[in-house]
Write a structure and sequence with these properties.
Blueprint (H helix, E strand, L loop, with lengths): L1 H24 L11 H11 L36 E5 L6 H7 L4 H7 L13 E5 L3 E6 L11 H9 L4 E2 L5 H15 L5 H5 L4 E6 L2 E2 L1 H8 L10 E4 L2 E4 L7 E4 L2 E4 L5 E3 L4 E9 L3 E7 L4 E11 L6 E2 L4 E5 L9 E8 L2 E3 L7
Antiparallel strand pairs: 1-2, 3-5, 4-6, 7-10, 8-9, 10-17, 11-16, 12-13, 12-15, 13-14, 14-16, 14-17, 17-18
Helix pairs in contact: 3-4
């Protein structure tokens, strides 16, 4: 009996040794397609830029009981507070490339950095990078009460402004829109209570600049009206007729042969086509956005007052009529009745 007991004991020890050997030689593998729950939570949090935890982790990295790593689709569109990082402009950078790098709209970077001319971007310049798309809008005091408007009043005014795109129209969308403004600006009280009576810039999420404003800032709003090279730029110059005094030149002169085509720089309506002693034969076109363009010293006018012309459409021929020193096109751009430098707006 004792011999049989010893044999069984030896057999049991042998089986235990075999099991241990198998565990050591063939360790348990985790499913690569199903990582640990806490890793899922961390990766999901990173994917959302750290905005809201998918699961609560304790100090040792373990997941708290009762939490989940599942990400709901609406989490990505929930209103969030506005946060900024900074970026230093490097050689070769453009606003478009920087915006693409950070998955933002060009207009967002232009607005939050108050950039009115994208061509003036400088190497070494520091710009703000927001964590969401949108625009900065100045909140003005009301005309009568001399106070800042309530949020609902501000949204009503904003909806009538043609400078911005993406402002919701339905009541349901307007509520979500108001909530996004509140969250972005931490605006949980009336604006006059938070900011007093001073004007204030606030961030409007998911709203875009108008295409016209974006083109204007990027300097590609107008086509070149004639082929040639610039002989006189916008600004002060000496009198080309031999005077010693300096005078303000309200446009730019493009030298070209007589008879060369002159084309509308932007679509619009011809408001004048005729003669003056200074400009000779000339054409004036009114455009959207408060712009007007003047094409002077023409040899021939090929457009009539009152007609609508498309961008690039023939409106006249280069000449040297009026007060002119030679064959060229004088091109002036007006913005709300004030001349601006055409060179900054040409593609």
């Amino acid at each position: 009996m004792m011999a049989r007991f010893n044999a069984c004991l030896r057999m049991g020890l042998l089986c235990s040794l075999i099991v241990c050997a198998i565990v050591l030689i063939f360790p348990i593998k985790t499913d690569a397609n199903n990582p640990a729950p806490q890793l899922e939570a961390v990766e999901a949090t990173k994917a959302r830029g750290g905005l809201g935890l998918a699961a609560a982790l304790d100090s040792d990295g373990a997941m708290d009981a009762g939490t989940t790593a599942e990400i709901e689709p609406e989490d990505f569109s929930k209103p969030k507070m506005l946060l900024y990082t900074s970026y230093t402009v490097k050689k070769g950078d453009t606003i478009g490339e920087i915006a693409q790098r950070f998955a933002l709209e060009q207009g967002t970077l232009l607005s939050v950095n108050n950039i009115t001319n994208a061509r003036t971007l400088q190497i070494g310049q520091s710009i703000k990078i927001p964590n969401q798309d949108g625009v900065l809008v100045k909140v003005e005091r009301t005309a009568k009460e001399k106070r800042l408007p309530t949020l609902s009043e501000f949204i009503q005014t904003l909806s009538k402004n043609k400078k911005y795109q993406g402002i919701p129209s339905s009541e349901e969308e307007a509520q979500a829109f108001a909530a996004s403004i509140q969250s972005a600006n931490e605006l949980f009280m009336d604006m006059h209570e938070k900011f007093g009576t001073e004007t204030k810039n606030i961030f409007i999420p998911n709203v875009k600049m108008s295409n016209l404003d974006l083109q204007e800032i990027n300097g590609d709003i107008f086509l070149w009206p004639a082929r040639g090279y610039i002989t006189d730029s916008y600004g002060y110059r000496y009198d080309p007729f031999g005077g010693a005094s300096r005078e303000f030149h309200n446009g730019m002169d493009i030298r070209a042969r007589t008879g060369a085509p002159v084309r509308a720089a932007m679509a619009g309506r011809v408001t004048f086509a005729g003669w003056s002693d200074s400009y000779g034969y000339h054409v004036v076109i009114s455009h959207s956005g408060g712009y007007r363009t003047l094409y002077a010293h023409l040899s021939v006018i090929r457009a009539k007052a009152g007609v609508y012309v498309n961008a690039g459409e023939l409106i006249g021929d280069v000449g040297s009529t009026g007060r002119s020193t030679g064959s060229h096109l004088h091109f002036t751009v007006y913005k709300n009745g004030v001349t601006v430098n055409p060179r900054l707006l040409l593609r």
